[in-house]
Fold this sequence. Notes:
Elements (H helix, E strand, L loop, with lengths): L1 E5 L8 H18 L7 E6 L3 E8 L35 H11 L3 E7 L2 E9 L6
Parallel strand pairs: 1-2
Antiparallel strand pairs: 2-3, 3-5, 4-5
Amino acid sequence: MSFEASGPLRGEWDRARIGQVLSNLLGNAYQYGAENQPMKVSARGDADRVVLSVHNQGPVIPKSQLQDIFNPFRKLDPDRAKSADLRSVGSGLYIAQSIVRADHGTIEVESSEAGTTFTVSLPRGVPPT
């Protein structure tokens, strides 16, 4: 795995929940990534946001199914996973999306022959309600 960081990475978030987002994304990237291909993780601090990305190389997720992977209990193709994890019910990406949205951020996914990348963008501070 490679990791790159740039810019200021601090913000006002629930650290445990953001840790869960990263754990879910890393676990997913490992589970569905190609053997012997490293994951790439990056964190970039901009003026008002922090952008995190997790990239792996593996089978392409069809464009028609990209948004489905954020639905609860949704597994696109369990046979693609490296190992059978019976505890997984397909809720990790749904949980990650819910946490990111609660912090007024966004989570997106892109998938092509070059790999799959999940990108999380979080504002540094939560806007007043």
